[in-house]
Every structure is written in C-alpha cells, then in structure tokens.
Amino acid sequence: MRVLSVCRLIGVCLLMAAVWQVQAWRYGGRIERLSATQAQAALHQQQAEQDKRLALEQQLNASDQQHVRELSDAQRHQAVLRDRLATADVRLSVLLDASSGCPMPAATAAGGVVHAAPRARLDPAHAQRIIGITDDGDSALIALRACQAYVRAVAR
C-alpha cells in the first residue's frame, strides 16, 4: 500500500511537472510574440523618426540653397550698382526740402521736369559708401530670414 501511495505521489508530481512545463512553454511563446511585436513597433517608430529627420534635413538644405541664391543675387545686384556708380552711368541724388531755407543752385535741380522737387547729387565716394551700407543691410536681412526659417523648421 505504501508503494502504491508513493507511485501515486510520483505520478501526481510527474503530472504537475508536465503541466508546469506546458504552461512554461505557452507563457514563453506569449513572451516571445510580445517581445517580437514590441521590437517591431520600436523599429517602425525608429524608422518614422529617421524619415522625419531626413525630411527636415532636406527641407533645411533646400532653404539654405534658397538663401544662398538670394544672397548671391543681392551681392551681384550691389556689384552692378557699384560699377554703374563708378562709371557715372547712374548717380545717386537726394531730395531737397524747399522749406529748409537752404538755397541750392538751379544746376542741381532735375532737368527737364517742370514740377519735380529739387534734388542734389551725392559725391560718388559717398554714394559708394551708401551702397556698401545697403549691401551689408541686405546681407544681414537675408541671414536673418535664413535663421528664422531654420528655427521655424526645427521647432516643428
């Protein structure tokens, strides 16, 4: 009788061990599937982040190229204007305030226009300096727009 009890006890233990092993396999399979799903989700999220970063880099590159073109165009325009001033092809002038009481000779007024306001021509050296100042201002504005575009793109 004791042998039978021991055999039953061993049988129950073996049955419990078998059930335990089956449960462990099932649980292990669930954990594997869950881990694979989480890994795949993380991979998709990482790919999405890389795609967004790449799109941002391309957008910033295009914006940078646009601002470089604008700066180059402005510099080219300023160089043409400086050349035209140097060859006396064009002259800078200022409007004179008739109410200031500062008399100007009639030779400085614009010729051929009857009702035009009186103007005085600027010295070519002063005109070149003014063009240089406006060139620096144009460059600064273009650089400021480039910085603002960069900040807007990165802040999104």
TrEMBL record:
Pfam families from the UniProt entry: Phage_lysis (PF03245)
Superkingdom in the source lineage: Bacteria
Protein name, entry field: Lysis system i-spanin subunit Rz
